[in-house]
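Quick question about two entries, pasted in order.
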Amino acid sequence: MNKFLKYFAIGILALLIYFGITTYPKLDLISGFSAKSIASGHFIDNRTIKIIEQGDNDIPLVSLANNVINDAGKFATSSVYGIKERKAIYREGLGATLINKDFDVNKSYEIPKRTKITINLPFPYGNSEPNDTVFSNIDYKKLNAAVAKAFDKEGEKSKRTRAVLVIYKDKIIAEKYDTNFNKNSRLLGWSMTKSITATLFGILQKQGEFDINKPAPIVEWQKDERAIIRTSDLLHMNSGLEWEEKYDKICDATKMLFQAEDMGKVQLEKKAQFPPNLHWNYSSGTTNLLSKILRNQFKTHQDYLDFWYTDLLDKIGMNSALIETDMAGNFVGSSYGWATARDWGKFGLLYLHKGNWNGEQLFDESWAKYVATPTNTSKGRYGAHFWLNAGGYFPDVPREMYYCSGFQGQMIAIFPSKDLVIVHLGLSEKFDFNGFLNGVVGSFKK
């Protein structure tokens, strides 16, 4: 018996050591992800804690978290095994923010001023329901079959699609939602938000307020080799700066999203590993640095907050859209954009029409070409904060397609010559986009 207890104790000790080495350091990130996800999903989209835990938080390790929502205080807390508790607070207009223990929840804050004008026009240029239009060149049986195939059948949990929207010639020709979601559900775009952040530079450039081809206006870089990095290099993700982006480990990206107070500073403080325009490296830190650069273009923080909405999101009727902020008041332009499927579709239409929104040119036509032109060393996969199919990554999909892409299968696909935008929102990294997109495009008669 004593021998058994000895080996049992050794086994327990070994497990504790293994846990301490492999898992304990991640607990802060696990509980941080969970608290932020719970607060955002509940307060932005009115989801129950059960729906969030079984959907958004059904991720290895994240599912270990114990979560509590405080509706009166508008915050959520999460912990793992009763330790490493993290808190995310919700503020109207700013969304949910994961905070550190020393964050002053009582300090005053500014919120974006929104202009939501009711326009008596059908989608996409007004608030009325879209007109029913039947196109003779579309095989609707094939189209609906392709859309239906994107969703799990009852009892399945592999495709995990939440919403699909297909827009042709400004008309919605297919729209479908999973259980618990509908046309009013606000869904997280994750890295599709990067494309929104980039677009703001296109707008500023058209307004004559910014030149992306000049060195990035960052004071801290002016006396070292980083001084030659252009804003365009940042938009292309080939600045040459150090960065590691992997979500299954503690790295630059996870520490930024779940620990940093000022997310824009994380990339700003990184050293140069390569000369600009020679080494493509995907970096959420770069996008949050761009958000910080945007903030510095305005005289006040209020002007910065307003600009994202007055000059882009509310301008094109993305009235459901919400970009969340970090603790320092910067928009988390890399990851935290929310909108309905229809409003995400409007963003795709803005690019389909090369910056023209119902007669008003928000950015120059050349900007749409700029973002869809392959970045040096990306092998045809990336443009300027947009992903591309120029290299045939999706072999059965037209090479002209370029798209916004986000974690767990978020996509806005733009097909310029086909006058087509396809939106997909879901929860699976393994979703078959090649088959799905091919099925939708294949429903158009030749």
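Here is the second entry:
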Amino acid sequence: MSVLIYAEYADGKFKKVALELASYAKAVADTMGTSVTAVTVNAGDTSELGKYGVSKVLNVNNGQLSNFNAKAYADVVKQAAQKEGAKVVVLSSTTDSLYLAPLVAVGLDAGMASNVVGLPVSTSPFQVKRSAFSQKAFNYTEVTTDVKVLSISKNSFGLVENNTAASAEDFSPALSDADFNTKVESVEKASGKVSIADADIVVSGGRGLKGPENWHILEDLATTLGAATACSKPVSDIGWRPHSEHVGQTGKPVASNLYVAIGISGAIQHIAGINASKVKVVINTDPEAPFFKVADYGIVGDALDVVPRLTQKLKEFKAQNS
């Protein structure tokens, strides 16, 4: 019996969320007196997982799985859990794993808890703390099934090093044609940028930037901070930025360590989608903008004036401390 995680791998490395899952699962496994097993798909060197507490890695190498397919990947995770006798399966809250988690739960006849924000408060009965109502409240959920599937909120646990000697073995789950009913025709990825899903810092712009020609000041700040760039829904709707950068309740959810909102008034749907971010900074000309009510720090001023000055100060600080 072990705690199983699905460790997401892309662009030649494990995603940060995979290492956070390993850290979380190790803490759960220690409580239950067991170990952590990770299942990977078409991954390279898996030794990094051992640094965060994984004892065993099941490597799946299959050309048919070169692109994410929720049904097929769910079958992989299900069979890995069955092979290891896992009673707890831990998944992340990335876009892929949000599709994956309910399919895995159905396949294992397991109870599922989403938006988990902490270690189990009890393992007998098995209870976890979850966020609810767009991170405005918390609840405690008891999972009574033999197998439990947990979907962990991003950045809710962090990375905890726990060096473990991780063994690795090839794993070949039995996949059928039915697993590949959905065909991926093409995949388009942004290159050379920090992705919103993996970012610790997100710099987001709204109509207060006055036009797409001014977006370079936001990008300069993002580059200085090592941040991902994002935008509000109106900005993507009018074509200033691609819809892939739209964040909020109706776009991509954000749970970064730092969220900087520039020229965004703060519609309730936007705030709900980024509310899980730990620190929120707002720059806006309107002191009555709704965003200031939820901000940790706020600057009242014109973004076209404030942001370049802020970026310059950050560059000077980095130069002095490099």
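Reply: Residues 127 and 142 are 4 Å apart (CA to CA). Residues 303-320 form the longest helix (18 residues). Hope that helps.
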